[in-house]
């Protein structure tokens, strides 16, 4: 047994577990990944050319294991799960669609126009710039600022959870006195 790798492993085990947990957000999965990293590091130690880079090598193995986990997870989802998730996301998004309109209407006119063109009519921002007779960078800024104002408005009313693609996963009213109507 190589005592060098065991010594380094004992020193960095907690840091590695914290690193993994910050990425996967699951303590049990964290333990599994850290264990897999240890096994790979221990069995492949003889392939490491520069022993001074042991710590960075272990972190590279860790990053690869995390990526491998998410890849495997991506391919393990059944088609039934995908269909049910898409249906529920569509229904939640359509439920909220009627609530967004009052928030858009409450925006200052210049931001309201930009949001309607960009996000409802799907007009390219270069075309928005032409229609509003402003520069392209001005149109981009106006759309971005309008989105920020819109988000700020509805965040006062509702807590909306989205996935990484922006699909609505869940929502709840923050203040019962405020209404989407």
UniProtKB/TrEMBL annotation:
Q: Where is the RNA polymerase sigma factor 70 region 4 type domain?
A: 104-150
Keyword annotations: Sigma factor, Transcription, Transcription regulation
Transmembrane feature ranges: none
Q: Name one GO molecular function term.
A: sigma factor activity
Q: Which Gene3D superfamilies does this one have?
A: 1.10.1740.10, Winged helix-like DNA-binding domain superfamily/Winged helix DNA-binding domain (1.10.10.10)
Q: What InterPro entries does this protein's entry cite?
A: RNA_pol_sigma-70-like, RNA_pol_sigma-70_dom, RNA_pol_sigma70_r2, RNA_pol_sigma70_r4_t2, RNA_pol_sigma_r2, RNA_pol_sigma_r3/r4-like, WH-like_DNA-bd_sf
Span of domain RNA polymerase sigma-70 region? 14-74
Q: Record's Pfam families?
A: Sigma70_r2, Sigma70_r4_2
Q: Name one GO biological process term.
A: DNA-templated transcription initiation
CDD domains noted in UniProt: Sigma70_r4
Tell me the protein family, please.
Answer: Belongs to the sigma-70 factor family. ECF subfamily.
Which protein are we looking at?
RNA polymerase subunit sigma
This chain's source organism reads: Pseudalgibacter alginicilyticus
